[in-house]
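Hi there. Long-time user, first ticket. I'm pasting a complex I've been working with (about 827 residues overall). I'd like to know whether the download I got is complete or cut off, because the file seemed smaller than I expected. Thanks.
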Amino acid sequence: MGAFLNEPVDLGDLVDPGEIPTLADVDFVPLHPNHLLVSLIGSGIAAAVVLVGGIAGAVLAPMRWIPIAIAGVLLALILLTAVLSVIEVRHIAYRARQHDISFRKGVLTREVETLPYVRVQHVRIARGPIQRWFGLATLSINSAGPDLHIPGLGVEDARRLEAYLTERAGDLSDDPAGDGFSTPADDWATPPSTPSPQHPVAPESAVPGPPAQPPVAAEAPSPGPPVRRSVLPEPPSSGSDPQRPAAPEVADRWSTTQPPASTWNENDPPDGPPPR
Amino acid sequence: MSQESELGAALGRLSSPQRQSPLAVVFLAGRMLRRLGLAQLALVGVAVSTQARNLGGVAAVLPLIALAFAGIGYVAWLRYTFAVVDGELRVTKGVLSEERLSIPLDRIQSVSIRQPLVQRVLGLVSLSVDTAGTAVTELEIHAVTRRVADDLALVARNSSERRSGSTAVARDATSSGGQAPGTHRGLGRSPGAGPGSLVGSAPGPGTSLDAGPGPGHETGAGDTLELEHRTRAVEGFSEETLIRHRPERLVRTAISRVPLAGLALLAPLFAGADEVAGVIGIDPSDLDQPTVPDWQIVALLVVAPFVLVALGVGLNVGRELFTNWDLTVVSSPKGLRRSAGLTSRTSTSSSVARIQQYSTAQNLLERRFGLRRLGMQTVGGGGSMSIPGCDSADTQVIEQLLFGERPLVLDQTTSSAEVFRSVRNAVPLVVIVVAVGWYSLGWQAVLGLLVLVLRWLKERREVSLRRWGTNGESIAVSDTFVTTRVQRSLLHKTNTAAVRQSRFERRRGLATVEVSAAGTSIVIGMIPLADAQRIRDLALFAAETDARPWM
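Hi, the file is complete. Here it is re-exported in full:
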C-alpha cells in the first residue's frame, strides 16, 4: 500500500481561474418598471386594511389605545416596507446566462442567488390580481434545494424565461456539457443549441464566446418559445389513433400555435393598462 | 399493443389540455373551505347564530354560502387544466390569481394514483405528482378517469427510465476518465486486513472538473446497451465490507459519549422517587429530617455524582451494544449499506450519489479515544446515515469513497470581525435584562454583564478555530468549540449558490457564501468578498459541467 499523502494544495493550481466564468462581472437586468408600483399598491392595500381594522377596533374596543397602538406599529412596519421597496428597486435585478439564472435582491442585506439550469425541477408562473392588472408575473424556479422567486417580470419576459429554462433544463440534464462531446471549457463558449429567446441571456464573461446579446425590451416581439427537445417519442396525429377519445373542449392556454381565449396568450395585451 | 405505441397513444391523449371530472368541483370547493379554515368558519357560524335574533334568517343564508363556494369551486375547476406538451406536464389553475406550472417529465419523482371511496363509487381516481422541488405535492388532480391517470404515469415512468439510462452511461463515461465517487471498486478494506490497511489499486485522482466525457458517450444510450452495462456492473462487483465494529469498539464508543445522555433515561426514576420510596417502605417525609450524621451526607454528595456518571456510562454501553451490535458498513453496486442491531437488526442503504453532505463530529472524549461520528445526509425523508465510533482508518475509507483521493486542506480562516458582531448583537438584550434586574433585584444584576464577556471568549475561540477550504471538487468547513464538527459537500451537487452581504460585512469588504445541495447547505460567513464570489463561481462551474449523478 502506498503511503497516504495529504500535502497542502493551492486552490489556484487546481482550476485555471480564467476557465471559470465569473458572475461578478455580469450586468444584471432590472425588473419591469411596474414592479415598484405593484409593491406600493400592495403596501397601500395592507395599510388600508390595517387602518380600517384600527378604526373599527378603536370604536368597538373598551380600551381604545390598544388597537390604535397595534395599528400604529403595523402601519409603521408597512411604511418601512414601502420605503425599502423604493430603495431596493434600484438594486433588484436578474440575469439569465447560458447555464444558470441569478437574482439579486435586498437592501440591508444584499444577496445574489444563482440556480443552475441542470438543477431545475419545475418552473411556476404566478400572477396575482394586481400583477395581472399591470401585466406582471412572478417566476418561481424550484430545485431540490432552495428555490428562486423572481417577482415583477413582464408577462412576456416570464413566459420566454420559463420556456428557455425548461428547454435548457431538459437539454443540460441529459448532457451537462452542453453538446455531449465537447469539453466543459468548450461548452462555456458554445451558445445554446436552440436559438436563444429574446430575454436577456448573458454569455459567460470570462470565456471568449459569442457576442453578448443586448437586453431586449419587454415589449419586443417574441419569435415564440424555443422548442424543447423532448426525450419522448412524438405523439401520433390525433386522427391516427382510433383509441383516442375526442379531445375535450378546453381552451389551450399554453400553446402559441393554437391561440385560445386566454390571458396567457403571447399575443394578448396585458390585462391592465400598458406598461409605463 | 407494443410499449412504444402505447406510449405514443398516451401522449396523444394527453397532448391537448383537459380538465378533471366535474366531480372535482366538490373537492376544489372543499379544499378552499379547508384553506379558509373550517374551525374558524364554524366559530363564526356559532357566534353569528348565538347573536342573531332571527335564526331562520341565518339558516336561509347558509344555502347561499354553499352556493357561493360551489360557484368558486366551479370556476376553479374550469380554470384547472393540464396537458403534456414538449416533454413537460403543464398545469394552469387559479381563480383570482393565475398560476401555471411546468414540470419536465424527467423530473417527476413519483406519480401516485389513489381511489378513495367517493372516487371508487364513480369509477374515478385521484392523482398526485411529486418532484424533488418541494416538500409538498406539486400537483394534485382530484378526480380523473383511470385511463388519464395511467397515461400520465406511463409517460412519466418512460421519461424517467430514459433519463436514468442516459445518466447510467454518463456515469460510466465519467468513471472511465477518473475515479468518480460512484465507482468505489477496490477502495474497501479486505476482510482480513488490519485497521487502516487499504487494499486494491486505488484509481487515479478524483474526477477533475475539466475531465470531459469519456468514450462511454460514443456508445449511445440505447436500452439494450444500458442493460448490458448494468449487468456487467453487478456481476463484476462483489460487496466489500468497509467498516465493522467489534464489541470492544462499541464499548469505547459508548464511553466516549457524554454520560449525561444516558442519565436522561433515569429521569422517570427521579420523577417517581416518592412512589419508589413508598414501595420499599420509606416514608418520604422522614427524609426532611435526616438522622444520619453530616459526614455521611457529605460523602454521599461526593460519591453520588460518580455513581450517576457510572450509571450513565453503563446505560450508554448497554444502548450502544443493543443498537449498534455488529455495526457493518458495506459497499455494494447500489451504494452504501449500514446494518446493526442485537435483537432487531436495522439496515439502511443509500446510493453514493444520493448522499448530499458528509459530516464528522468529535467531542473531547472522542478525541481522546481517536474516534469520530460520521454522518451522511441523503436526499429524501431518510435523513442521515450515522456511523458512530469510527477511527481515522474508517474515516479515510468513507472519505475516499465519497470524495476520491484528492486531498482537501482546511487552511482558510474567517474574519475576526465576527467576534465583535456577535457580542454587539447581544448587547441590547443583555443591557435590558440587567436594567430590569437592577430595578427588581439590586446592583448585583450588573454581574449579568459577565454574559457578554463569556460570549466574547466563546466567539473568539470559535472564530480562531473555524476553518474552511476547497479543493475544486468539494468544499468543507469545520467549527470547534467543545465538539469539532466538519461539514463537507461535493461542489457538483450544488443546487443553488448565494453570496450575501449584510451592511456590517459590506463595510469591511466581507461576505457570506452559501452552497446548497438537496436539503443541505454549507454556509461560510465573514470571508473576503472575492473568496465568496470565487467559491460561488466554482460551485456553479462544477454543477454545470460535471456529468456525475448528483442525486
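A couple of notes from our side: Confidence is low (pLDDT under 50) at residues 179-199, 205-276 of chain A. The CA atoms of residues 49 and 199 of chain A lie 37 Å apart.
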